[in-house]
Amino acid sequence: MKLNCLIRAFRESGRPIVFLTLLCLGLGILFSLLGSEVGIAMISAGLGALLLFILLGSSMGCRPNTG
Hints:
By secondary structure, this protein is mostly helical. Helix content is 76%, strand content 0%. It contains three helices and no strands. Helix 1 (2-12) crosses helix 3 (38-59) and helix 2 (16-33) runs antiparallel to helix 3. The mean pLDDT is 72.
């Protein structure tokens, strides 16, 4: 049930958070492979954005439809 709500919130978000997350993770991995410390910060930002989306999606977008 929670997974369905999360998927619905994911679809209704317009996918900007997914783009941001993938961009941060992708660039973070690239910079980490190149030996830059910025990569770790970008990976952390991407994971933080994903966690924020999960928390907001589960608290706001997952109310049962009673209508």
